[in-house]
Amino acid sequence: MKIPMLDLNAQYEPMKDKVLQAIKDVFDSKRFINGPQIRELEEKLADYCHCKHAIGVTSGTDALLISLMAFDIGEGDEVITTPFTFFATAGSIFRVGAKPIFVDIDPITYNIDPDLLEEKITDKTKAIMPVHIFGQCAEMDKINEIAKKHGLSVIEDAAQAIGSEYKGRRAGSLGDVGCFSFFPSKNLGCCGDGGLVTTNNDEIAEKIRILRQHGSKPKYYHKIIGGNFRLDTMQAAVLLEKFPYLEEWHKGRQNNAEYYNEHLKDVVVTPFVESHNTMIYNQYTIRTPMRDELQNKLNEANIGNAIYYPVPLHLQECFAYLGYKEGDLPESEKASQEVVSIPIYPELTDEQMDYVIQVIKNI
Questions:
Q1: pTM here?
Q2: Residues 281, 162: contact at Cβ < 8 Å?
Q3: Helical H runs in the chain?
Q4: How do residues 177-186 score in pLDDT, each as one tens digit?
Q5: Is residue 2 part of a domain?
Q6: Domain containing 98: what range?
Q7: Same domain, yes or no: 207 and 250
Q8: CA angle 162, 126, 196 (to 5 degrees)
Q9: Where do runs of H (alpha helix) occur along 202-314?
């Protein structure tokens, strides 16, 4: 049996005709930029994320970048974040000229540890960028309390967390802005790159809308410098066809996670979900000191898997100038040596999951 890490064919086939028609409609209209599907998608996702505003952008990476720009974060500023995340989190901070300051993670949830935040705050700190890793929200009440105390902005990296909840509130509505990715592997993915910024702040929303069109308003008149951060109409059209399935897909992943938990809890460390959180399982990540041996067994058995993330960001070569060394952030470093993610997509069959479980139990 061969089981991919993600089976987009299984997702695509039931909606193939609708997706192709949506793409055809865009080509027939010739409104490839700023077509009506953009506004329709933004309105639906703003409502879904419990926010006043949603602004479509080119990617999850650019959602982070444009949010930093909207808060005028740049040269000489510092932004606190986690090293246990995809590169774009810290890369976007660097790209605006600011300095990423890394804080270690809670080893149970893999999210940034809020109890370690305050000791890293300086007079140069301008924002905190928590990541809702694998689809579980960070401890936002503590983070927001610290941010308010020190006058800092909170930029949620919710790239993996659309629809996840913290104490009944949706990811993207918990900080000053929320940043989402529609990369094809996400729970809601498009047919290329796409992203979204959510906020309840009218002024920031307007600024982001201007920044995504080179800082232009009205056209060809520029008070600020922005960039080309527009979401393509075609991507919005595809997302509109997929969005109605999102809650069903979340539920499928959650059901699969429960099945894995039941059968793997005595073999490996399974994901821990805080009682006040609803996790959407963009990844199902297990942990064992025998990770490399387990991964070899999964590969031999043709079971898709991935390590998120093999090298924490503070130890990446490009960030050597920051002066971090091995041992500085021990929980992130240990997690990088012990975690592996296995297939969790909603179309998995019981037979496929039983096969995955059997291979893991035999390490």
A1: 0.97
A2: no
A3: 8-12, 16-29, 36-48, 60-70, 88-95, 140-150, 202-211, 233-242, 246-264, 291-300, 330-338, 350-361
A4: 999 999 999 9
A5: no
A6: 8-104+111-243
A7: no
A8: 25
A9: 202-211, 233-242, 246-264, 291-300
